[in-house]
Write a structure and sequence with these properties.
mainly alpha, 181 residues
Length: 181
């Protein structure tokens, strides 16, 4: 699994040129004693992460898949294409069409998960229709997400959520064009 600190390091490495958007707060559970302190500070300044309402970052807490997805979607400024006054209902319907477990996606994350899915960055293996949003993200899952974000197309299309693969019949070519001789 990937921790919040580990994901902060990855985000800073994958997006090294992201601009600072806020002044990073000082997290008591990070300051001066955590291996990823600098990355957490940069990730917070760049708006990738925020602390919890109690002022803590929880660097060693495992990051759920849904959080990794919405952090990436927010940074990429992805928007779900929908009728403006029907964003909530249309994003939920889209998610239900894509995922058997759409009802387990937290409400606050639905439009961002829908945007990420619509953009083709959400990868689910081995069952493409199982998002498992509240499960902790694994290194493999995070690597697949980052590959999609970076345009490294190594993930088979069968595991990219929201993409429907329709196979077409193979037809013979006219005359002798089918032979290699």
């Amino acid at each position: 699994p990937v921790t919040r600190a580990g994901f902060a390091v990855l985000m800073c490495n994958v997006f090294p040129d992201a601009a600072a958007v806020i002044r990073a707060p000082s997290f008591p559970d990070v300051s001066g004693k955590h291996w990823a302190e600098q990355a957490i500070e940069k990730a917070t300044e760049r708006g990738f992460f925020a602390g919890y309402p109690n002022g803590l970052f929880y660097p060693d807490r495992l990051i759920p898949r849904v959080q990794a997805i919405i952090i990436l979607a927010a940074h990429l400024k992805l928007k779900f294409t929908a009728t403006p006054d029907k964003l909530e209902t249309e994003s939920l319907q889209f998610l239900q069409d894509c995922f058997e477990d759409a009802d387990t996606i937290p409400q606050y994350a639905r439009s961002m998960v829908a945007a990420a899915t619509q953009s083709g960055i959400v990868v689910n293996y081995p069952q493409v229709r199982q998002l498992k949003p509240n499960q902790n993200a694994t290194r493999e899952e995070v690597a697949a997400l980052l590959c999609r974000v970076l345009g490294i197309y190594t993930v088979p299309v069968d595991y990219i959520a929201g993409i429907r693969v329709q196979f077409q019949p193979v037809r013979s070519l006219p005359r002798s064009l089918d032979s290699l001789a």
